Amino acid sequence: MSKVLNALRSAFVDGVWKTFCVKWIWQGFCVNLVYKKFDKWKGWLYLAPAIVLLLVFTLWPIVNTLRMAFLNGYSSLGELGGETFEFGIQNFQKVITYAKFTSALKNTLLLCVITVPISTILALLIAVCLNAIKPLQKLLQTIFFLPYVTNSIAIGMVFAAMFNIVGNNIGAEAELIKTAGIINNILGVFGVKPVNWINAGSSYTANMTVMVIYIVWNALPFKILILLGGLQSVNKQYYEAAKIDGTPRWRVFTKITVPLLSPMIAYVVITGFIGGFKEYSSIVGIFGDTMGPVGDPRRLNTMVGYIYDALSQDYQGRASAAALMLFAIIFVVTMINLYVSKKKTHY
Amino acid sequence: MKVELQNLTKIFPSRNKKSGEEVVAVNNFTFTIPDGKLVGLLGPSGCGKSTTLYMISGLQKPTSGKIFFGDEDVTELTPENRGIGLVFQNYALYPHMTVKQNILFPLQNLKGKDRMTKDEMLNRALEAAKLVQIDDLMDRKPSELSGGQQQRVAIARALVKMPRVLLLDEPLSNLDARLRLQTREEIRRIQKETGITTIFVTHDQEEAMSISDVIVVMKLGVVQQVGKPQEIYDDPHNLFVAKFLGTPPINVFTGRVENEKLYIGNDAVLDVKGVEDKDVYVSIRPEGFSLDEKGPFICELSNVEIMGRDVSVVSKNEASLNPVIRSIINADNKVDMTSATVRYTLKPHKVFLFDKKTEERIYFEVK
Lengths: 347, 367
Prior knowledge:
Structural class of chain B: alpha+beta
Strand content of chain A: under 5%
Distance between the termini of chain A: 66 Å
CATH superfamily of the largest domain in chain B: P-loop containing nucleotide triphosphate hydrolases
Radius of gyration of chain B: 25 Å
Largest sheet of chain A: none
Number of domains of chain B: 2
Helix content of chain B: 10-25%
Oligomer: heterodimer
Shape of chain B: elongated
CATH topology of the largest domain in chain A: MetI-like fold
Shape of chain A: flat
């Protein structure tokens, strides 16, 4: 021990120790510095692909939308031609005063308000029933899930065929009697006169009915899947306890199942509203890109449809303004949803 | 309410269809539970005790056999028509309801002539809450309660509709050791106060012994023995019951009987009058040993554990089936730790003989 100490002391006195130490520390520091620098950048390097994609395809479009929305009468062709645009809120003013836009807003709101509650309640009932049966559960689950994996345009075309009529309605009412659509044929069995659902001369109510049926049917699988998953994770003992207390079925459903499922229900409603406000392809599926029956194009246009139209006519300013308004609406509705669900949901 | 089980059998069909092996969870259970008693169903896991409880509750249907409440055959009745209260092992309190709502829930289900006004319901709920001493927690959610408090809420919920029979599934298994002691006293008190026939399931023999009026010991779906706790402890009918009850556990040896003398190893340890010559299992309760320098039973001394009032002498013997022999001796008796061996005489009423094949009890005359 003393030998070591002596050696150390002499090394210190000689200054050898000092030089070595300084050298080691300096080297260690340098190496560390390089590593530290690399450490700092390593994370960014690995994130780079995602960040680049986000910047190009998410952040830049958002910024650009904001820019275009607040340049009066902006059009990209005009900008290419050297035109300059003033900053202002004219785009918004124009959009709001457009009848086309207000009708699109009305259609979107109507579809949302009608389809979300219907599809949620239906999905809940179907999920509860599916959960209650043992045999064929997997098969039925698959069948109910099929719409989810099917192309919505394809479904729309099938729906269009189902609600179709033969001949046209222009002229005498008698011409409507011949019908090819399966829906009218089924209604005929019950003695209901064929209805002109989607063809030329059809009523707005008939059009909306078809849309509601289609959207509800299309929205069911996802909701059933989520709710069924929730149901299957509910502890069976709650039901056994309820059974012992002789709880009527309806009370079990309203007082136990629904509260325990409330987080899933909230999720399904919120995503349902968000999806509903973005409704577009379903209408294209049934009515084609005219967004309305023959003779009355744009009758069933939606917010997204309006934005597409404005874009295709090179009114990017107006389209951006409408997009921002859609965003604002979805944001407000989601906030309300969250607020309500926080009060009513049991987590 | 007297509860009578007649030839109760539950067979679960095999899950694997090819092997076709059925599981007999409860086999031919016949037993009458006297009115107003606290009965413990005791056994290791998988012995069918919970299945029995669920059959009494009506949540499971017996494969054969009958269940009577008093003189009424309830075998075919649904759970809600049996008038039972069931406390689940994990309590199954509705997590989205407050304590008050949980306790009120069964009352709100009542229909017809049993229907109560809101005030009546509240009074009843408060009464039940007071009985289990949770009346100051009425507005809390179950997640805001401790395990013991949740347990009380579950009992209150089961009691509030005045059941004819109260069933408890492993009522203490989710509680810590101290709370367990406290809660079992509590269950005893509540049962005494209400006088409701109570059946509870447990795998903890100490728990069963301490609070039950009657214990039913089960093994693999078959009832082994029924009786008062002390009776079962003092007079086990077979080796399983002897081994299952008592802490520290009973000491088991292989032995043989020759000329009405019991041999463990080469030591003739006890006179056993009236037993024919055969190989036997000998089990001796820890308190069945007394130190005796000239005692016939010689064991190798390992160590002595001090427990205050008593000492526990740990020793070894080749014939022992337990890794060590534990005997509880009054601390007044000094054990000579320098000695390599310890010698005992045995108290005959603490020594039980069991047939080597059937493991059934062989009785001998105690002088």
